[in-house]
From TrEMBL:
Protein name from the UniProt record: TIGR01244 family phosphatase
Listed NCBIfam families: TIGR01244 family sulfur transferase
Source organism, top-level taxon: Bacteria
Domain called Rhodanese: residue spans: 78-144
The organism of origin for this protein: Pseudomonas ogarae (strain DSM 112162 / CECT 30235 / F113)
InterPro entries the UniProt entry points to: BLH_phosphatase-like, FAD/NAD-bd_sf, FAD/NAD-binding_dom, Prot-tyrosine_phosphatase-like, Rhodanese-like_dom, Sulphide_quinone_reductase
Length: 556
């Protein structure tokens, strides 16, 4: 934990965790202030967890959250009032400490000379020059004053961003590329289903971001606040400005835990879990092992979500464990999905239904989780009847695996890059933005109709890399993305239904049917999922090696 003294009675840190509260108490802090909204990161504990741990130690906990790079003057005033009234010393935290420092700087405007504010922040390791320009410019950030300029800027250091940077360098070594991402760790998120099923350890899915970003690529460790495409500019957290020639946007999705009433207060307790969070996938496996009888409910929200098969993958692996332990007959399994079908591509449904029947799973279509009462262990769903009317149904549970609703990140939804629904508005074939010719996007936050999976990003990255270089005059022709996505559906430990398809649900198998028939459960497909895909991800996809992923080209 990196705690930095900022001002009298105030220190700043990056994200803290509940198990660090004893250390925080020993350090003498009497109050903590959270400046980070829930749901920003897949490895982020919710504020409710932090608050419980703080209260157990006799520490006050307050929530004053701001979107990354969107700290307002009003929040600065509110932060200053909190500092005046709360027991000191105070520890304020966000993802990196930048938002907390920004709030403090804004709270001090007019009370301290601006150079003194800048110097105090600098000693704590934070550059406030952009914030000071904003204060001096009456709230506006002058984009003409750029902190950095690069030929290609990539927003997002997840699977899509790293793979695209590597594909660019494989085609044009020495290209000036910068990746903007505030995270310290890069995760292999497809592995979290196997963590929740007791196959992988969580640590196997995590590498440091510094070790993952390709050599020669600049890493701007910051969060994006806003886009100004008419000026070829990005505004970062702290009001810093980065300019670009070509922009690639791939920030992933936001998990909207607060869309379900009561969920943040009970997640990780009372048998409520989710494989969509790094630190909760092990809790899933712990709860699965402990459950010997009762009801287990698995939920799926309205589309789109990342990896549409993940909710039922978790269910099948859990059911298989209970079957192997001889307790499956004592456990009632419910699959409550907002959708009208089990899986969006009909060819794979017959194989999945065989497992639904074998495990005795009760399918509840048109069921959307609306609230959770953790202590009472009840979950309430809004259910759609055949005539289109809705009603609420409440179920008891012993285990509840929740998949939260998912949306584009806040800074995308409010940006000029977004369509009316909040997704990045791109051409589904070229992945170029429909308005801004020097902007491309890929991954989960676009409005393309493909499945939001790592496999889709693997196919999209070379397409974007080629088309960006073509836009720069460094490549000929245009590359096309056909909507490929893949979902290895783990139906039991040792067998996978390997779903592969393109736009419109057209089957797109990578292997001949005599080797792997994707419409049937396969042990070879399990070997691919467990043994081959993880190293393929780390050592091929993220290194610009495009095995089975070279794009189709057409002359301009």
């Amino acid at each position: 934990m990196d705690i930095r003294h900022l001002a009298s009675g105030l220190s700043i840190s990056g994200q803290i965790h509940p198990d660090q509260m004893s250390e925080i108490k020993t350090s003498g802090f009497r109050t903590i202030i959270c400046n980070r909204p829930d749901g920003e990161g897949s490895d982020q504990p919710l504020f409710a967890d932090i608050q419980r741990a703080a209260q157990a130690m006799g520490i006050e906990a307050h929530y004053l959250a701001a979107e990354s790079g969107k700290v307002t003057d009003e929040q600065g005033v509110a932060f200053g009032k909190l500092l005046e009234s709360l027991p000191k010393p105070v520890l304020a935290y966000c993802r990196s400490g930048m938002r907390s420092t920004t709030m403090w700087a804004l709270s001090q405007a007019g009370q301290q000379p601006l150079p003194k504010i800048v110097e105090a922040a600098r000693k704590a390791g934070f550059d406030m020059k952009g914030v000071i320009r904003r204060i001096a410019n009456e709230g506006r950030t002058p984009v003409a004053v750029a902190e950095a300029r690069h030929a290609v800027v990539i927003v997002g250091g997840g699977a899509a961003g790293i793979a695209t940077a590597s594909s660019l360098l494989a085609r044009e070594p020495g290209l000036d590329i910068a990746i903007i991402d505030p995270a310290d760790v890069h995760y292999y998120q497809p592995g979290w289903t196997l963590v929740g099923g007791g196959v992988f350890e969580a640590q196997q899915t995590a590498h440091t971001m510094g070790a993952t970003i390709p050599r020669g690529v600049h890493w701007i460790k910051a969060a994006v606040a806003a886009f100004e495409p008419e000026n070829d500019a990005i505004i970062l957290d702290g009001c810093r400005v980065v300019r670009y020639e070509q922009l690639i946007v791939c920030p992933g999705l936001k998990l909207d835990w607060h869309a379900i009433e009561g969920l943040p207060q009970t997640l990780g307790r009372n048998g409520v879990t989710s494989n969509y969070l790094y630190h909760l996938a092990p809790y899933t496996w712990e709860q699965v092992q402990q459950l010997r009888s009762g009801r287990a409910i698995f939920t799926q929200p309205p589309m789109p979500i990342k990896c549409a098969g993940a909710p039922q993958k978790a269910m099948y692996l859990c059911a298989d464990h209970w079957r192997r332990q001889g307790v499956l007959g004592d456990i009632e399994i419910d699959f409550c999905t907002a959708g009208a079908v089990l899986f969006g591509v009909p060819d794979y449904v017959p194989a999945l239904m065989e497992y639904v029947r074998a495990y005795g799973i009760d399918l509840n279509f048109g069921s959307t989780l609306t609230s959770v009462d953790g202590p009472a262990q009840t979950a309430t769903f809004r259910c759609v009847k055949v005539d289109g009317s809705t009603h609420l149904v409440t179920h008891d549970f012993d285990l509840l695996h929740v998949v939260p609703p998912q949306v584009a990140p806040d800074f995308i939804r409010v940006s000029p890059l977004a369509d009316g629904a909040g997704w990045i508005d791109v051409d589904s074939d070229s992945l170029r933005h429909k308005t801004w010719a020097n902007i491309h996007a890929l991954g989960d936050a676009t409005n393309t109709s493909n499945a939001k999976t790592a496999a889709a990003a693997r196919k999209q990255a070379p397409v974007v890399a080629h088309n960006v270089l073509a836009a720069m005059g460094k490549a000929k022709g245009s590359a096309h993305y056909d909507g490929y996505g893949s979902c290895p559906l783990t139906v039991e430990r040792g067998k996978v239904v390997l779903a592969e398809f393109t736009y419109g649900g057209k089957l797109a198998p990578s292997f001949p049917s005599w080797l792997i028939d994707g419409t049937r459960p396969s042990r070879l497909a399990w070997l691919l999922k467990e043994r081959i895909l993880p190293p393929l991800y780390w050592k091929a996809m993220l290194k610009g090696r495009e095995w089975l992923a070279k794009p189709e080209l057409a002359d301009l």
